[in-house]
């Protein structure tokens, strides 16, 4: 399907054979040629799958076959670099967004050729079918969401015509001649002045020409424009005549301000042309400038881009023209964000980067073990020279790109001007409304696909907007010293609930806005003096929010209700638009009355607060006046009285943060792929060079092939290193990193201010927390190693403040969204993986640390617990039994060189947080049992699921007809295994830090917890240690995806628990383990390498796999504590507890333990373990269902 672009498709192109909604649609033009030489241009807006060329009327296309796939159709595909005519072969060069493809057909010679950016790609097809009835139409086939624009001649072709070729549409020759003559007359008037004193004509300096009201000149100009004005409404003439003339004025060099002639000419146009003529002329002029900027080839000095940006600045400097373009063209007709984009060259040789960066270099990093590795390798003298030469080339490139970026910032400074109030509203407030609408279109994803701004444009727009914003912010600070500087910028919390800024249907931390307005209306009244109309609250129900339109009755009643409370305006019709979210509709219909700050709630004052659409807002609604605080209405008492800055700049800042959340972060992650490619090719080149050095001299054939490979890798690295230099300058430079860091600090301060408002914090949009987490991730992962986050000012303090936010809000009851809560948990889990960020967590106030650990130790039921468990595991790794590895030892033994195997960060345990955990578990007698019972429950579930899955995997693997296991099933199975191991590690951590929870039986829950733990440990050991069992068979299959499933991780975790339980005199723990019915001495012997000889003999012929034994593992000694079990330590040498002499003495529930408890008041009996576990969830008796009021110890009386 052909998507529209900001450059309208030529009218000659009609969807005569368009297949709507398909993945590969085709379009044929309505004009054909049958003799002669013809050409048309295609402007590539996206670089996806497209086939462009010519076809006949007889060609029939479908969703599988397009232009070039049928006889008598011919196409060029720059995405795959091929040409198509039923069959396909290599042809041409790869294209990129911003390129122009010229399609040529010579029906006299029977050939078809193509050009890319004016450079011929050679003849693609010859001997094409010609003759009677054969005519060729321009045609294209393209994938869904791809977009192009055609130029058949309605505009001047971008590149000069080849000799003999004509565009499909003839240029307006007569109008061109007339326009050039009139332009010549205009130039003569500008060049020549009248010397009144001497009464003769004299030549004047055109650059300083001004319209001074001379009657003769005015009359002459009026006559010229009488004929010139209608011509300036035509696209071809604006681009070929007017734009060329204006560009020639700036070619003299110097700053744009040095050429006031353009301003004078625009004054003439507004004076002597009809208003509709000026509007059309300016629209076509900006469209031509945008097209020329976007589709200009990249040359070393970026001269073309600079040329067009300078003219754009000159036009926008004219106040009346700027306001018209802002109001009607820049965001409505054009994708004006293109002006702030610097495209990346796909072909570095054409961009001149070889001359700019003659020497290439790439970092010698050949490991993927995390980006925080600080290993410094010796650099040879040759490498040092290459690196310095490469860096000098990068600096030259940076200086040239900075010129373009400076011009782009100048454009935004003009658009953000708030001093040009002559003739209407200032430019900044027009820009604000258009900018908000732009954000809405991109946030809702409901607009035309091609209206949405591409992420690569967003990145550049964000950085230019930050530069312009900080320029005005610091300028205001210089004029008003009492305000906040941009270094301390933040968004005040009242913007999130006073209805002055539209957040569309974006989710708030506390849920839907309508719900928050109803549930927090009292808090709004008490803290922010915001009163919601009760009639509105009653009318807006969830059912009402689903309706698109209100009934006529409710619409008629609405104004009286709103005016009674505060004089708010009735809802305009535009609010019924389906493009607005349900939550925003409530805010737009709510009548809000605001009283003076910090006054007690009393009689309502009739202060009219208009709830207006974005288009209806004025400067007064934003900045406020005469006691009206504008965007800052409803300031909570927690907010300081210090003014921040101009209100309009606060809304721009809010929009920048939203923009980063929409697509900038994803694009930053995407562009890292080029750096990864450089590393991969560098590894391949190094490996090839090592092979060349080892290659025997007699094997010349191998040596030659290796040399060819070396040449290919070197050429690819040269290309990628130059392209990477461009990307590092435009996206990952130090200045861009500082912009992202500034956004992170803004978000942190905004969250801190919002948190102080208590319950009103729920009104904050979720994207503020998301941007805080994502910007930190980008700084840490995307900008290194070019720039290091540690070099940023205030790095340590920023880490600590972000850590405090994550620690507090991951379990904040004011945050209800599942996705944002999961994101906070994942961010905290990532934070504790790295030493720097973990130390930041340890530096937050002690009260916050203890609160975080208490939230982590909350019961696992009814909440996402896997990430919580992972955080606790990370705090423990490096302290556990055999738990100091960075990669699983059994994986290193099998495939030590496989880079795709899961790698872990180096252990960085936190003894401080462990101590907090130990204190909480020891001091809070209710917290420990509830937490441990939930851990034991989840362990039971995870390990049971794992066993069930490996049974299914084993059955599938044994089938003769289908030896295939679903990869998703394998992934889930491995996840359950990893969860089981991590839960065991948390139990080991708990037993180590607070052993009294299990071993001090003065605690009411200790016996039950120890028995449950023993039961689960024995189940795990029995499943894993049995010879020729299910676990062994699945592990020996070595299925891809199950690499982490092995004896080592789970048995070492179980052994760690046993060691902690049995170390020292622990007869009670030993007795409980031995008394469990599932206990098998064979499992302990297996751990120590004392397996049964018969079992070993049976498995020996099958594999050479060594029997697992803790004696062979390089971990802490464990034979001593485990020997307690083999010798029956503390149990008089018995291998298990002595069974009761009579079946009547066994617990009637489990038949494993003797009766030891009697229930009140029903006097039924069981063992303590059964009744204690039962009473955790149910208070009714097992047998009679009576309510149990107490449990007493039971001892059987001695029999005679």
TrEMBL record:
UniProt catalytic activity: S-ubiquitinyl-[E2 ubiquitin-conjugating enzyme]-L-cysteine + [acceptor protein]-L-lysine = [E2 ubiquitin-conjugating enzyme]-L-cysteine + N(6)-ubiquitinyl-[acceptor protein]-L-lysine
RING-type domain boundaries: 1147-1185
An example Gene Ontology biological process: proteolysis involved in protein catabolic process
Broad EC category: transferase
Keyword Chaperone in annotation: no
Enzyme Commission (EC) number: 2.3.2.27
Pfam families on file: SPRY, TPR_RNF123, zf-C3HC4_3
Annotated protein name in UniProt: E3 ubiquitin-protein ligase RNF123
């Amino acid at each position: 399907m052909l998507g529209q672009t900001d450059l309208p498709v030529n009218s000659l192109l009609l969807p005569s054979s368009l297949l709507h909604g398909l993945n590969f649609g085709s379009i044929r033009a309505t004009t054909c040629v049958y003799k002669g030489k013809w050409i048309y241009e295609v402007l590539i807006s996206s670089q996806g799958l497209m086939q462009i060329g010519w076809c006949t009327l007889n060609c029939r296309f479908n969703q599988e076959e397009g232009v070039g796939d049928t006889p008598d159709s011919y196409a060029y595909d720059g995405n795959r670099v091929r040409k198509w005519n039923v069959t396909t072969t290599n042809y041409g060069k790869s294209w990129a967004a911003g390129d122009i493809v010229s399609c040529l057909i010579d029906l006299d010679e029977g050939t078809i050729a193509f050009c890319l950016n004016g450079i011929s790609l050679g003849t693609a097809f010859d001997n094409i079918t010609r003759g009677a009835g054969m005519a060729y139409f321009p045609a294209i086939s393209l994938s869904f969401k791809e977009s192009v624009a055609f130029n058949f001649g309605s505009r001047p072709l971008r590149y000069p015509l080849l000799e003999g070729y004509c565009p499909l549409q003839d240029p307006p020759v007569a109008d061109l001649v007339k326009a050039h003559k009139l332009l010549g007359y205009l130039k003569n008037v500008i060049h020549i002045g009248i010397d009144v004193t001497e009464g003769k004509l004299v030549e004047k300096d055109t650059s300083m020409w001004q319209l001074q009201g001379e009657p003769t000149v005015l009359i002459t100009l009026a006559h010229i424009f009488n004929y010139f004005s209608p011509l300036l409404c035509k696209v071809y003439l604006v681009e070929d005549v007017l734009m060329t003339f204006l560009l020639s004025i700036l070619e003299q060099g110097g700053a744009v301000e040095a050429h006031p002639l353009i301003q004078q000419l625009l004054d003439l146009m507004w004076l002597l042309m009809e208003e509709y003529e000026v509007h059309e002329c300016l629209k076509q002029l900006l469209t031509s400038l945008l097209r020329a900027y976007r589709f200009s080839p990249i040359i070393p000095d970026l001269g073309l881009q600079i040329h067009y940006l300078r003219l754009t600045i000159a036009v926008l400097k004219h106040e009346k023209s700027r306001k018209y373009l802002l109001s009607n063209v820049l965001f409505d007709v054009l994708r004006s964000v293109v002006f702030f984009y610097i495209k990346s060259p796909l072909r570095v040789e054409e961009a001149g980067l070889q001359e700019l960066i003659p020497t290439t270099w790439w970092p010698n990093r050949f490991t993927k073990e995390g980006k925080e590795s600080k290993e410094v390798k010796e650099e040879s003298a040759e490498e040092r020279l290459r690196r310095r030469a490469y860096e000098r080339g990068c600096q030259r490139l940076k200086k040239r790109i900075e010129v373009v970026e400076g011009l782009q910032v100048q454009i935004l400074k003009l658009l953000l001007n708030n001093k040009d109030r002559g003739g209407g509203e200032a430019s900044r407030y027009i820009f604000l409304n258009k900018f908000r609408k732009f954000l809405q279109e991109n946030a809702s994803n409901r607009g035309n696909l091609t209206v949405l701004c591409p992420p690569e444009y967003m990145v550049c727009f964000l950085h230019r907007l930050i530069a312009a914003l900080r320029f005005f912010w610091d300028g205001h600070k210089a004029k008003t010293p009492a305000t906040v500087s941009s270094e301390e910028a933040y968004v005040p919390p009242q913007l999130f609930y006073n209805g002055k800024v539209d957040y569309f249907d974006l989710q708030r931390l506390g849920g839907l806005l309508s719900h928050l307005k109803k549930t927090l209306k009292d808090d709004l009244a008490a803290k922010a003096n915001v009163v919601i109309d009760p009639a509105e609250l009653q009318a807006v129900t969830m059912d009402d929010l689903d309706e698109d339109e209100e009934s006529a009755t409710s619409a008629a009643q609405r104004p009286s209700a709103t005016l009674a409370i505060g004089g708010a305006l009735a809802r305009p019709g535009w609010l019924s638009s389906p493009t607005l979210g349900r939550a925003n509709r409530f805010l737009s219909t709510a009548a809000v009355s605001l009283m003076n700050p910090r006054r007690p709630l009393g009689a309502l004052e009739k202060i009219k607060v208009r709830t207006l659409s974005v288009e209806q807002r004025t400067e007064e609604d934003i900045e406020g006046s005469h006691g009206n605080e504008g965007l800052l209405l409803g300031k909570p008492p927690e907010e300081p009285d210090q003014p921040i800055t101009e209100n309009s700049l606060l809304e721009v800042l809010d929009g920048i943060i939203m923009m980063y959340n929409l697509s900038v972060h994803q694009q930053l992650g995407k562009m890292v792929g080029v750096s990864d490619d450089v590393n991969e090719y560098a590894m391949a080149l190094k490996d090839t060079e090592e092979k060349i050095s080892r290659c025997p001299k007699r094997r010349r054939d191998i040596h030659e092939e290796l040399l060819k490979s070396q040449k290919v890798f070197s050429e690819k690295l040269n290309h990628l290193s130059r392209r990477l230099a461009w990307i590092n300058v435009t996206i990952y430079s130090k200045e861009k990193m500082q912009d992202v860091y500034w956004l992170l600090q803004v978000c942190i301060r905004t969250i801190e201010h919002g948190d102080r408002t208590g319950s009103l914090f729920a009104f904050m949009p979720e994207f503020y927390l998301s941007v805080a987490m994502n910007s930190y991730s980008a700084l840490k992962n995307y900008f290194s190693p070019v720039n290091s986050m540690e070099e940023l000012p205030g790095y340590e303090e920023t880490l600590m403040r972000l850590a405090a936010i994550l620690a507090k809000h991951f379990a904040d009851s004011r945050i209800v969204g599942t996705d944002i809560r999961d994101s906070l948990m994942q961010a905290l889990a990532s934070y504790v993986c790295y030493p720097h960020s973990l130390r930041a967590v340890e530096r937050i106030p002690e009260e916050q640390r203890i609160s975080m650990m208490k939230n982590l130790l909350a019961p696992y039921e009814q909440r996402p617990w896997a990430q919580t468990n992972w955080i606790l595991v990370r705090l423990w790794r490096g302290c556990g039994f055999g738990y100091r590895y960075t990669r699983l030892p059994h994986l290193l033994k099998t495939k030590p060189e496989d880079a795709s195997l899961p790698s872990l960060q180096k252990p960085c345990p936190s003894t401080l947080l462990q101590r907090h955990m130990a204190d909480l578990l020891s001091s809070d007698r209710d917290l420990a049992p509830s937490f441990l019972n939930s851990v034991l429950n989840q362990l039971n579930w995870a390990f049971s699921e794992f066993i069930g899955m490996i049974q299914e995997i084993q059955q599938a693997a044994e089938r003769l007809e289908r030896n295939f296991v679903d990869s998703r099933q394998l992934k889930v199975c491995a996840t359950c295994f990893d969860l089981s191991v991590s839960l065991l590690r948390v139990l080991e951590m708990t037993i180590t830090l607070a052993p009294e929870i299990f071993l001090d039986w003065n605690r009411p829950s200790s016996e039950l917890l120890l028995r449950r733990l023993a039961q689960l440990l024995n189940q795990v050991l029995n499943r894993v240690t049995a010879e020729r069992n299910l676990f062994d068979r699945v592990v020996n299959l070595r299925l891809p995806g199950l690499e982490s499933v092995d004896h080592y991780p789970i048995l070492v975790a179980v052994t760690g628990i046993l060691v902690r339980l049995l170390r020292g005199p622990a007869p009670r723990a030993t007795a409980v383990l031995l008394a469990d019915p599932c206990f098998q001495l064979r499992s302990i012997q297996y751990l120590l390498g004392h397996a049964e000889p018969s079992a070993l003999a049976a498995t020996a012929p099958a594999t050479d796999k060594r029997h697992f034994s803790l004696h062979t593992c390089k971990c802490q000694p464990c034979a001593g504590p485990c020997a307690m079990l083999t010798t029956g330590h503390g149990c008089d040498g018995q291998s298990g507890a002595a069974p009761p002499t009579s079946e009547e003495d066994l617990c009637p529930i489990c038949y494993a333990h003797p009766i030891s408890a009697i229930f009140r008041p029903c006097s039924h009996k069981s063992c303590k373990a059964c009744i204690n576990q039962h009473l955790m969830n149910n208070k009714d008796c097992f047998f009679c269902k009576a309510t149990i009021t107490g449990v007493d110890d039971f001892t059987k009386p001695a029999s005679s």
